[in-house]
Design goal:
Layout: H1 3-10, E1 20-21, E2 37-41, E3 47-52, H2 56-75, H3 78-94, H4 96-102, H5 108-128, H6 132-136, E4 138-139, E5 146-154, E6 157-161, H7 168-179, E7 183-187, H8 194-204, E8 213-216, H9 220-229, E9 235-237, H10 244-254, E10 260-262, H11 276-279, E11 282-290
Pfam families: Aldedh
GO molecular function: oxidoreductase activity
InterPro entries: Ald_DH/histidinol_DH (IPR016161), Ald_DH_N (IPR016162), Aldehyde_DH_dom (IPR015590)
Length: 293
Amino acid sequence: MSRASRGDAERPARLSVRKTYKLFIGGAFPRSESGRAYAVSSTKGDFLANASRASRKDARDAVAAARKAFPGWSGATPYNRGQILYRVAEMLEGRRAQFAAELDGVPSKKAGELVDAAVDRLVWYAGWSDKIGAVRGAANPVAGPYFNLSSPEPTGVVAVIAPDEPLLGLVSVIAPAIVTGNTCVVVASERAPLPSITLAEVLATSDLPGGVVNILTGFTGELAPWLASHMDVNAIDLTGVTDPDLARRCEGDAAENLKRVLRPKPSDWSEEPDLTRMTAFLETKTVWHPIGV
């Protein structure tokens, strides 16, 4: 045996570094204030990592961060918001292999296609950033000496219960909410949360202001009702709520401050998107102005 071979044989096996995935709040990565975490397993039952289990306090902190970020983000030009979403797409594509590896249980070729679809989805929404106002706004005919102009404006802070499709579905619910100027608090897929925090690492380094997107990992049944009843949340997307009783409870809680509610329904995330998700969280402002003044 050569000296090199003996050295290789004597070298101890390398231990893998097991990662504890944290929350993403206000542009930072804190642990849950409760100190809780839960084990994330593969489809075969193998341990993958620990993910922070967000609490009610974490949800409140995320809403506060989203509210703080709202004036700056909603006041940015649509073109600037589109540029930032395009930058997110660029960086997501740069980490294609990592995202594909984290899509547990998906064959490698299919996983790569899902990452590519998520990149394309971000680019699609980025392209709409400075066009949705023209499409949804209008100069209204009025029987009088007035201009009557309607224009869309963001609703505010949107709570999003993300679907179990952990990348394409996640991107498909976040992008339309923020491209129009909203900020959001996202409850990631309980079953497959790892791609959501890797996406948070992309968001944190892609010029997106801290607090525009906040991502919580944990149990949907625990977090969704608190976000639905939070009085500083303006709208809630229940796409990822699969329990009909929980969905009804969240709708009832949301009614307390007249939140906009996007009800859960089966979705094929591979289908081409439309404007529905962008317009779901827009308000219409109408301005009257006398002619000749």
